[in-house]
Amino acid sequence: MKNFEILSALLPVVDALEKYSIPYYIGGSIASSVYGMARATMDIDIVADLKFHHVSLLRENLEASYYVDENMIKDAIQNNTSFNLIHFDRQLK
């Protein structure tokens, strides 16, 4: 996968997080690749300090381009676990 494809899936999420001043960092294979240690997995890992009041805001900002399940996000916040956003065009999560 090319860098522009990854960025096209990543940047709208980053823009939404920054729009609402939600602290975040990018990890996983994307961060590893930036530092010169490429990995075979092609997903984007973002750790964000989401609160319940952010959920509908994120959905509204991202639902045109991503699969977004509000209940899954709320469960993840409540249980301190992860959830998926899936970019429709790139099929990246």
Describe this structure in words.
The strands form 2 sheets. The protein has a two-stranded antiparallel sheet with strand order 1-2. A two-stranded antiparallel ribbon has the order 3-4. It has one domain (3-87). It contains 4 helices and 4 strands. It is an alpha+beta fold and 93 residues long. It has helices at residues 3-19, 28-34, 52-62, 70-79, and strands at 24-27, 45-48, 66-67, 86-87. The longest helix has 17 residues, at 3-19. The protein is globular, with a radius of gyration of 13 Å.
Query: Beta-strand percentage?
Result: 5-15%
- Secondary structural class: alpha+beta
Q: Could you say how many structural domains there are in total?
A: 1
**Spatial gap, N to C terminus:** 13 Å
Give the secondary structure arrangement, pairings included.
Blueprint: H1 3-19, E1 24-27, H2 28-34, E2 45-48, H3 52-62, E3 66-67, H4 70-79, E4 86-87
Antiparallel strand pairs: 1-2, 3-4
